[in-house]
Amino acid sequence: MFSGIIESTQKITDVTRLDKALRIKVLRPSFFNDLKRGDSIAINGICLTLEAFTSEFMEFTLGYETLRILFGNPSSLESLESFKKKLNLERSLRFGDRIHGHLVSGHVDCKAVIIDKQWHGESLVFKIQLPVTIEPFIWKKGTVAVNGVSLTVNDLGESASEGKFFEVCLIPETIKQTNLSDYDRNEFFNLEADYLIKGLYQASLKKR
Length: 208
Description:
Layout: E1 8-10, E2 12-18, E3 21-27, E4 40-43, E5 46-49, E6 52-53, E7 57-62, H1 64-71, H2 78-81, E8 87-91, E9 110-120, E10 123-129, E11 143-146, E12 149-159, E13 163-170, H3 172-177, E14 188-193, H4 195-207
Antiparallel strand pairs: 1-8, 2-3, 3-7, 4-5, 4-8, 6-7, 9-10, 9-14, 10-13, 11-12, 11-14, 12-13
């Protein structure tokens, strides 16, 4: 479990194609000094298992289901072309930690296209497609994880040309500490709807 507060942004140094899976090697932040094999680390919002590490690198495998959600076709060459930007990293929470964002499971629901990107002074506003799969869990002033970053939904809307969308606003600290500002129109973010709300929704369905 994570909080959506990014600890570091780092680059992938190597990608190895496996049978319907990818193994990635990521630069290790110097202050990630408590690692052990099997740890859970969120990378762009995706909970991955730490398989191996050195003083400089960390290794993870993206399995079939993760690639299916992110790329549709796990065998697509797009999988290899989608890791050029820095990645958001967050180690898992420990009992007793303060939760400064919201509870994030690291189980990404979907990806969504960036419709618009506008600077408003020191703040950056993204307009993001609202996929039907998470529509029931997105509401104004609710929370959503975007590339693993805990954000508040500022607004919702719909237009004939753009379909349904939602907006999030990045403050300077979020811009500085995450990779979100590196993304532009027509690129994609990983989205995870509020974990607790999804659980309540499923429970309500069983009571009907």
